[in-house]
Amino acid sequence: MLIRKPSDIPSSAITPKEQYLNRRRFLRNVASGAVAVGAAALGADRLTQVFSPKVAAFAGTKLQTVQSPLTTTGEQLTSYEDVTHYNNFYEFGVQKSDPAQNAGGLPTRPWTVHVEGHVKKAKTFDIDALLKLRPLEERVYRHRCVEAWSMVIPWVGYSLSEFINQCEPLSGAKYVQFLSYYNSGVQRWASQTTIDWPYSEGLRMDEAMNPLTLLTFGLYGEVLPNQNGAPIRIVVPWKYGFKSAKSIVRVRFVDRQPSTTWNEMASNEYGFYSNVNPNVDHPRWSQKVERRIGLPFWQQRRATLMFNGYGDQVASLYTGMDLRKDF
Ligand code: MTE
Fold first, then answer.
1. Which one of 242, 251, 308 would you pick to mutate in the ligand 1 pocket, going by the greatest count of ligand atoms within 8 A of its CB?
2. Cys-Cys crosslink for 108: which of 182, 231, 295, 310, Cβ 3.0 to 4.6 Å?
């Protein structure tokens, strides 16, 4: 973001999709084998406990998912190693490798999400109740950072709209704001920046209600690693990655465009909308091309797609707007 342009990282081998799917099949088989053995040993009622979301508090815990019609297909997944070791999470340091090293102390249980503002009644949701609210879907999305690098990630979650419906917003709710966890004791690296914490992001209500906007609990079939925003984050695949607030503890329904972290830091560089747009350059670099992390260097450069390739689903949200002005 403001701090530096991306530097080249040594990237590990990509997980080919087939290999990943085989790994998932293998894990499922192992899991169902364990279920069969476990069922005999424990009795069926214990099984639900073994696989209850409570257990999902621990890093590496598998999540049961269903395939989603909203998944993006045909592109090679970025390896788990790169997805979890090349991160932006400035509360844990400004280098890409810092979050993986420093986020271990993030306390992901107990965890609640408080909902307030223009809603019928303020409410607090427990993370384990949220995990059970809807079947978890695996959705492969392109992930495009404003720094002109990109990845392809198999996220796990369900549409944010499902959660918003539970929040019962009132007609005055025009925008939704997401606030991340902030504790200067746990996140002492945060003071290396001039950011006014907690991290804040926001969406217009129709953007938040678009089925593509994902309330995200996991990736690669497992709970989110801390560095990727455990235990709950947003993923908005047609926007630059900074719109996707991590480790959310507060959701506010508001009547005005909320103030957001990067827009506050430098409004000429980071607009509120921040739709991926190859025709609007960042003041310090072009957005026409991107570098796909993890590929051999001669395959990394590729043209950036309008709305990150999700135009069919989202372009209508911006009809009549000047996307050069409302970038
Ligand atoms: N959320 C919080 N709380 N803090 C952050 O620094 N960085 C944003 C976004 N969400 C950030 C955040 C940016 S700049 C990007 S590109 C994405 O998270 C990175 O997500 P990833 O590390 O899972 O790829």
1. 242
2. 231
10 to each of 136, 215, 294, 295, how far by Cα in Å? 33, 31, 8, 10
Contacts of 185 by beta carbon, 8 Å cutoff, 6+ apart: none
Q: What is the pLDDT of residue 59?
A: 81
Question: What is the Å distance from ligand 1's center to 145 Cα?
Answer: 9
**Could you tell which of 244, 276, 308 is best to mutate to test the pocket of ligand 1, judged by most ligand atoms within 8 Å of the CB?**
244
Pocket of ligand 1 (CB under 6 A): 1, 87-91, 143, 145, 180, 199, 228-229, 241-242, 244-247
pLDDT surpassing 60 at residue 30: no
For residue 219, the ligand 1 atom closest to its alpha carbon is: 23
Question: Tokens representing 287?
Answer: 């957005």
- With beta carbons less than 8 A apart as the criterion, state whether 182 and 197 touch: yes
The percent helix, strand, coil of the chain (3-state, each to 5) is 35, 25, 45
Q: How far apart are the first and last CA of the chain?
A: 16
Where do the domains of the chain lie, and which CATH numbers do they carry?
12-318 (3.90.420.10)
Contact 275, 309 (CB under 8 A): no
On whether the CB atoms of residues 304 and 147 are closer than 8 A, the answer is: no
Please give the number of the atom of ligand 1 that sits closest to the Cα of 99. Answer: 22
Please compute the mean of the pLDDT values over residues 166-187 and round it to a whole number: 98
Query: How far is residue 218's CA from residue 296's CA, in Å, rounded to a whole number?
Result: 27
> Stretch 255-271: mean pLDDT, rounded?
97
CA–CA separation, 47 vs 260, rounded Å? 43
Instruction: State the Cα–Cα distance between residues 26 and 239, nearest whole angstrom.
Output: 34
Contact 174, 204 (CB under 8 A): yes
- If you measure from the C-alpha of residue 246 to the centroid of ligand 1, how many angstroms do you get, rounded to a whole number? 6
* Rounded average pLDDT over 244-269: 98
Q: Is 205 exposed, middle or buried (0-12, 13-18, 19+ CB in 10 A)?
A: middle
